[in-house]
């Protein structure tokens, strides 16, 4: 998905870098997958991070130069600008759809960072912390999504991830995010339903992304979606399905331990949001069949 070059990137809610105490997460790819299964695309990291051994050494996380993020052309060129511009677009869509919508903060980091939900490392992947209403992105993870999880490398794959995290912010504003921690777990549990709803909300954003105009410039944030764009988003959704990750890492699938849903389910709910453009169609908590 390509940004219109005439759109202007607003970096006012985006920060980069950070400092704090690091955590040690070992295990190579296995360690990464454990963290991703638990946290990727929005779960509250507090529960998992609190179980990790803490390195008492200090660190200083490098920042990104957000001064170069000015226009849609920059978003098409630099991943950190793309994350920020995608957030601008998602904010504009939800401001139209949800009365009282407030923008989340966006934090870009590399390596490790302290958050309102605990200390996180790059192994965590992107996540949303409801405590500080911030979506955290280590942009290096997008390459991990391709190299380790087999996702498409297209920009829409990255933009889907951003829209999903913002979907958790919408859930937080509506008072639904906490439902993930209650009731049954596993393949039909509240945690999976929460993640699938965020996938659906990402689809809702995609429905409006190319027709929503930026206030001040009068241009749409993005150019019309192509079939390749949708394939990129569906590829990313599929690559982080619980069944696909479990099969790859262990050779078998255990639905009782699912936290985010199967690949087909994640694709299904993104498609529901994309085709309908209606957040009311994203009520995964009432669905008898998750797809």
TrEMBL record:
Q: Which PANTHER family match?
A: INNER MEMBRANE PROTEIN, PUTATIVE MEMBRANE PROTEIN YPFJ
Q: How does it sit in the membrane?
A: Single-pass membrane protein
One Pfam entry name: Zn_peptidase
This protein's major location comes to membrane
GTP-binding as a keyword? no
Keywords carried by this UniProt record: Membrane, Transmembrane, Transmembrane helix
Please list the coiled coil stretches.
none
Against InterPro entries, the record matches this protein to:
Uncharacterised_pept_Zn_put
State whether keyword Membrane applies. yes
Q: Which SUPFAM superfamilies match?
A: Metalloproteases ('zincins'), catalytic domain
Say which species the protein is native to.
[Mycobacterium] zoologicum
Residues that span the membrane, as ranges? 23-43
Protein localization? Membrane
Q: What name does this protein carry?
A: Neutral zinc metallopeptidase
